[in-house]
Specification:
The complex is a heterodimer of chains A (about 450) and B (about 475).
Chain A (H helix, E strand, L loop, with lengths): L1 E8 L5 H10 L4 E5 L5 H6 L1 H18 L15 H25 L3 E4 L2 E5 L2 E4 L2 E10 L3 E3 L12 E2 L1 H4 L8 E5 L3 H13 L2 E6 L10 H14 L2 E4 L3 E6 L4 E5 L2 E5 L1 E4 L3 E3 L13 E2 L2 E2 L12 E3 L10 H15 L14 E3 L5 E5 L10 E7 L4 H6 L4 E8 L5 E8 L6 H9 L4 H6 L9 H10 L7
Parallel strand pairs in A: 1-2, 1-6, 2-3, 6-19, 8-15, 9-10, 9-15, 10-11
Antiparallel strand pairs in A: 4-5, 5-6, 7-16, 12-13, 13-14, 17-18, 20-21, 21-24, 22-23, 23-24
Helix pairs in contact in A: 1-8, 3-4, 3-6
Chain B lengths: L2 E4 L2 E2 L6 E6 L6 E2 L4 E7 L3 E5 L4 E5 L12 E6 L30 E2 L8 E2 L6 H5 L19 H10 L17 H10 L3 H11 L6 H10 L17 H5 L4 H7 L14 H16 L2 E9 L1 H14 L7 H15 L5 E3 L4 E3 L5 E7 L2 E3 L2 E2 L7 H17 L12 E5 L18 E15 L2 E15 L5 H16 L7
Parallel strand pairs in B: 2-9, 6-10, 14-17, 17-18
Antiparallel strand pairs in B: 1-8, 3-5, 4-7, 5-6, 7-8, 11-19, 12-13, 14-15, 14-16, 18-19
Helix pairs in contact in B: 2-3, 10-11, 10-12
The chains are: A alpha/beta (about 450), B alpha+beta (about 475).
Chain lengths: ~450, ~475
């Protein structure tokens, strides 16, 4: 039996970050991973999909090059190469994590882990003894009723990011971030995409106004939006899938199931130890501890929002807590979120529909009035800021448009530092950048715009 | 070299204490063996003797809380001159210095018959360190920094790194003036920033500053919870606004004189609150017939003729000790996961003293005769009132008896002395009534008030225990067996 101060189960952006931080704090750390370091995010999520979306975006730009005075003829693409590049990027980064583990003297154990008792984890044939167990196993895709991913015509995210050939007609079930990203990718490559969503809008967790902008843009690109409709039945046959939507029967070459995720708990043995699980996720307190002392959980398996950066932040907290230090608990209202569709969406904090309209000030600056957006031709979009009417506190920011995922961090810092409109207005934003639109949005909220 | 007078450490658990009285005035001569100062800790008071002849200089006024090992003054030898810039006396009450390590030689343990302890002087090796470079002159050979408590406090307030200062006090000791000079020099911008923050905090989020302005909150009174103590919006949420605070004033009670909570009062306050918070206490009363006990006591007073004077409390102690042997669950300690039954009965005896309450312990009460208990309880009660109890007299109680009968009390709910499981309250003897058939008969009676820890045992066994005590008192001749 080997002994460690901490045993971390799962090597994703939560687990590996917790391992590094715990090691920096002087603890001996073991990390168990059954597949590949980097977890879903790096191997089967954020990273490979961003690679595919970058390819699709390049293709779209090349097709539009004529408008910028560049003649390009005979444009074509190679799906296999696109996928290969995305796998390469994932592989390279996973290798990088491996090196980080080595550099930080973290013992990595490959295999399925089982928490057999408080303080005792089995990985393969290896028995690890420890004071603290961190469960960072991430999440798995949810299935929908009796519709199961078969890997042939009914795809999950993994199949959707490693297509062998392009489906002519593609049904995407669920218009959350993952569904929207796949819709944009396949639409850009020329598939006819139908995007089905039970809610009455795409990206239903975003600010309603932003969802509306995205919905319009997707429809404009030719994506068939079927909102407020659920799937009644889905059957795989030899040539594709037959879907029942309302009274209609439709045939598609493939369907992608993207209706959310649930905590990855199977085989861990946590239920037997009495760890509290609610709606498929482990319940934790503000120090990431479960109801069983000595067992912690971070990242997706510890509940929504299922985002890599939330997992990494919780990893910092749990490492500090286990090493005996204090940590500021995570404030969920301060977790930004990004969706890499066309256009992109980035947001943080309060949504307008959740606020008392008399208690807030809202600024909306359209990107068509921003110089940098005009020259690059990405004028579709909006930057929206929400302030507390009384205190002037920045409560939320919602951005839609090409490139906004790189902007939202400015607002994240502003909210984190508790700035008011005064600091944002007195800050000098460089010209010509898209970031000027951020300041214009603030100015608009206080009825003093310059460029509108 | 003047010799340092330390705040003596008494017992291993002493964390703070004070000079409650200087017997030798500042600047007055003292002879070796004279009583120098009175030490008061949360547990004991004792007198400390002078170690050598000389002139006494105080560096701390009476009543200032300090950590054991802190210097409270100096004795200057007959040939030594007292420097003109000798550090002034610190008079206001200050938090105990965090520097609490003490040279081993200064540790003294009080014994009941030997309550005055020699003040131990600094190791002479410190003199050898004098003249070394940097602030080495301000360190003893063991590396302990020589700095006055006032200097340490001021340094922490002004955020001056005291270990970088050069001491100008006696023996290279760092005094307040050194810290002030360093702060005034503004050697570090940090010092200035911290000094400035004391009046107008700078580490405030813009939002918190704006809210504070509109609500009239004095930010210098707010404790920040953000990174590096940054004051955030949330830190203001639970504060009353100044306006509402002012509104409150006329209806609130106006403050009279203030009694500082320190020493014994502080200990009692925290122990009693802790006891109620940490255990499941409840109380019950039971009445004992005391006619026979009154007769027995009268006989014993005659028979022992001044050798020992048994009190009713002594009878209760003896009865309780016997009952504890019969009901061992009550003589126990609750440990969270287990209940530890204790073999010996060490009976705590709550004694009221002028400024508080002491609970000395009658050791092995279960094996002492009633006479031995009477003698020991009298000794402990006297020592408690005279302030001459030693540390051993307090140690290891397993159960407690507390008497309020002499104040006319008929029933009360005593608080358990942690980590014990019970306490018996002794009430006044009164003329009660018993019934002989239909005829009321006057009878001497006494209520016993038991508080016990429900985590350890339930009502039924607790009642059985109390019934045993009552039974022994009602048939008191069994107490002589």
């Amino acid at each position: 039996m080997k002994e460690f101060d901490v045993v971390i189960v799962g090597g994703g952006p939560g687990g590996y970050a917790a391992a590094i931080r715990a090691s920096q704090l002087g603890l001996s750390v073991a990390l168990a991973e059954r597949e590949a370091l980097g977890g879903t995010c790096l191997n089967w999520g954020c990273i490979p999909t961003k690679s595919l979306l970058h390819s699709a975006s390049l293709l779209t730009q090349i097709k539009a090059a004529d408008g910028f005075g560049i003649a390009v003829e005979g444009v074509s693409f190679d799906l296999e190469k696109m996928v290969a590049h995305s796998r390469e990027a994932a592989g390279q980064l996973s290798q990088g994590v491996k090196q980080l583990m080595r550099k930080n003297k973290i013992s990595v154990f490959e295999g399925e882990a089982e928490v057999i008792a408080v303080g005792s984890v089995k990985v393969g044939d290896e028995l690890l003894a420890t004071d603290s167990i961190v469960v960072a196993t991430g999440a798995v895709q949810k299935s929908l009723g009796d519709i199961a991913i078969d890997g042939k015509h009914i795809w999950g995210a993994r199949e959707a990011m490693t297509p062998k050939r392009l489906p002519k007609r593609l049904l995407i079930i669920g218009a959350g971030a993952i569904g929207v990203e796949f819709a944009c990718f396949y639409q850009a490559l020329g598939s006819h995409v139908t995007l089905l969503e039970v809610a009455d809008r795409v990206l239903p967790t975003e600010d309603h106004e932003i969802s509306g902008v995205v919905g319009d843009a997707l429809a404009q690109q030719g994506i068939e939006l079927r909102l407020g409709q659920g799937i009644e039945g889905l059957r795989s046959n030899k040539r594709g899938v037959e879907a029942v939507i309302g009274d209609e029967r439709q045939i598609y070459d493939a369907a992608v199931l993207s209706v959310g995720v649930q905590g990855c708990l199977a085989g861990l043995g946590l239920e037997a130890l009495g760890v509290e699980i609610e709606n498929g996720f482990i319940s934790v307190d503000s120090t990431q501890m479960t109801n069983v002392p000595g067992i912690y959980a971070i990242g997706d398996v510890a509940g929504a929002p299922c985002l890599a950066h939330k997992a990494t932040h919780e990893a910092m907290i749990v490492a500090e807590v286990i090493s005996g230090g204090g940590a500021h608990p995570l404030e969920k209202a301060r977790i930004p979120g990004c969706t890499y569709g066309t256009p992109q969406v980035a947001s943080i904090g309060l949504r307008e529909q959740d606020a008392d309209p008399t208690a807030i000030r809202v600024g909306r600056f359209p990107l068509y009035a921003n110089g940098k957006s005009v020259v690059s031709g990405h004028t579709q979009g909006l930057i929206k800021t929400i302030f507390d009417r009384q205190s002037g506190a920045l409560l939320g920011a919602h951005l839609v448009g090409e490139g906004v995922t790189e902007l939202v961090q400015g607002f994240a810092i502003a909210i984190g530092l508790e700035t008011t409109e005064a600091e944002l207005i007195s800050t000098i934003f460089p010209h010509p950048t898209m970031s000027e639109a951020m300041q214009e949005s603030v100015l608009l909220a206080f009825d003093r715009p310059l460029h509108l | 070299m003047p010799r340092e007078i330390y705040l003596v450490k008494v017992g291993m658990t002493m964390t703070e204490g004070m000079v409650s009285e200087w017997f030798i005035d500042d600047g007055a001569p003292v002879s070796k063996g004279d009583m120098l100062y009175a030490l008061e800790t949360e547990k004991v008071n004792l007198d400390v003797d002078a170690e050598m002849d000389g002139i006494v200089k105080h560096s701390v006024a009476a009543g200032v809380m300090l950590a054991p090992g802190d210097v409270v003054g100096y004795i200057f030898g007959p040939e030594e001159t007292i420097p003109a810039d000798f550090a002034g006396v610190q008079s206001s009450s200050a938090p105990a210095s965090t520097q609490s390590e003490v040279p081993a030689e200064t540790v003294a343990v009080a014994r009941d018959d030997q309550l005055s302890v020699a003040a131990v002087t600094a190791p002479s090796a410190s003199e050898a360190a004098q003249g070394a470079s940097g602030n080495e002159g301000s360190r003893t050979q063991e590396g302990r920094l020589k700095a006055s408590p006032a200097a340490r406090r001021l340094a922490s307030e002004l955020n001056v790194s005291i270990d970088k200062l050069h001491g100008s006090g006696p023996g290279g000791r760092i005094v307040e003036a050194d810290v002030k000079a360093a702060a005034d020099k503004g050697g570090s911008s940090q010092t200035q920033a911290v000094a400035a923050r004391r009046s107008d905090p700078t580490n405030v989020s813009p939002l918190a500053r704006r809210i504070a302005e509109t609500r009239g909150i004095d930010l210098s009174l707010v404790q920040g919870s953000g990174p590096n103590g940054r004051i955030l919006q949330a830190d203001l949420d639970h504060l009353p606004t100044q306006a509402s605070a002012q509104k409150m004033t006329p209806v609130g009670p106006s403050a009279g004189s203030v009694v500082p909570v320190r020493g014994m009062r502080k200990t009692i306050a925290s122990r009693m609150l802790q006891s109620l918070q940490e255990s499941a206490q409840l109380s019950m009363d039971m009445t004992a017939s005391m006619d026979d006990a009154v007769r027995l006591r009268t006989q014993l007073l005659k028979e022992w003729d001044g050798d020992a004077r048994p009190t009713y409390t002594d009878l209760v102690i003896k009865a309780t000790a016997k009952a504890l042997v019969k009901h061992p669950m009550m003589n126990s300690r609750f440990d969270g996961s287990e209940i530890v039954l204790l073999e010996a009965v060490h009976m705590g005896l709550a004694v009221a003293v002028p400024d508080g309450l002491l609970v000395p312990v009658i050791r092995d009460a279960h094996s002492l005769s009633l006479k031995e208990i009477a003698i020991e309880s009298a000794r402990l009660a006297n020592a408690a009132r005279e302030g001459t109890l030693g540390l051993d007299d307090f140690a290891g109680g397993t159960f407690t008896v507390s008497a309020l009968g002499m104040f006319g009390v008929n029933s009360f709910t005593p608080i358990i002395n942690q980590p014990q499981s019970g306490i018996v309250g002794v009430n006044q003897l009164f003329d009660g009534v018993t019934w002989e058939g239909d005829k009321p008969v006057k009878a001497k009676q006494m209520n016993l008030s038991l508080t016990w820890d429900h985590r350890v045992l339930d009502g039924a066994p607790a009642a059985e225990f109390l019934a045993s005590v009552v039974e022994f008192l009602s048939e008191p001749y069994r107490l002589l067996l």
